[in-house]
Amino acid sequence: MIALVWDFGWFVPLAERLAEEFETVYxxxxxxxxxxxxxxxxxxxxxxxxxxxxxxxFWEVWxxxxxxxxxxxxxxxxxxxxxxxxCLVWGTGISSWLERDRxxxxxxxxxxxxxxxxxxxxxxxxxLRETVKPNQFIKINENRGDFETIKNIxxxxxxxxxxxxxxELGAYKELMKFILVNKIEGVEIGYDGFxxxxxxxxxxxxxxxxKDCGYVGKYVDYKNLPQSILTVNEKLAEVFKREKMxxxxxxxxxxxxxxxxxPIDETLRLPNPPYQIHITNIKNLGKMMLEAAKGNLIEPDxxxxxxxxxxxxxxxxxxxxxxxxxxEDKKKWVKLINWATIDDEWYSLPxxxxxEFGAVVGLGNTLEEATQACKSNxxxxxxxxxxIDIDSLDKALKVIEEGRKYGITF
Length: 410
Fold this sequence. Notes:
By secondary structure, the chain is of the alpha+beta class. The chain is built from 13 helices and 21 strands.
């Protein structure tokens, strides 16, 4: 059996994981520009069990591929074309509009009766400066490389960010569409799993993310998920059934003190975090994906009940090939972004000018076991300017306690 992973650098560890279940795994990092750099073409190089190929070579192998895997939220029409050719595809396909078009997603939420934070679209940076209010969130569609969600604290704190955006967007700054979303007070919870034509597996992961620092999650029977997640997923299922979505789904939901669930972001891709938990904890992951692409939902064979993740950052990684030293007994638990192995050394390559370069996973049958395992797995990792916020796992425990006040058991 042959699998092909079509990626943009984030999910090389997924390709390595699938090599445990497929005879051949091709990996394509589809970063293209007119002046390609070596660092871009090296992503996926030297990974055990994985054959990295250039995007142009796709057409030489595609007819022999048994399963196409699209872990990210782009190329929905390409996925559909492959399906039209009779190919088996695991990915979110055309349903990715839920993530890529925030205005359309907000309109859908309102139409199906899901609570919606006040959302407003403004055009141009000048209008944004005049309109945005303290504690509103600023988002954009599609091009998340321009900037991630910004929280507008006040004019003084945001002016410099707006100046940076002006430089980044240049002549387009007064044509850019910005989306303003009011803050919802409450606790944030999320579902991190899979769907096959609107059906969800019984064993499902949900959890709390400490933004840019870490994550803790728990597998439960689907019916025992928090009601806030069940409410949102029920509405999403209608879309997924109609559009035959067979892939990953993650969502972020703010639950108020009155236990009202406000979806704030739909993620139509493998979430980072906690996809790293899935690929280390689900023993039949490749079979799940293959059967899902056929329209069959099978249950994940999970090894542990809880998972924890600590994010790794380095200022050096922004512009440089970052060598990462990982003890041999910890390599199973360390997942790098833009990963390549060169002369038996692990590297994260500077494709996206980001400090974040990977994550460390811990699993256990209790929350304490998982968090302690994660902390232990961080020991011995070395990299220039390495920053792992281990304390974020303790912060997550406090968020869990807060969640109980909002009716969310964990």
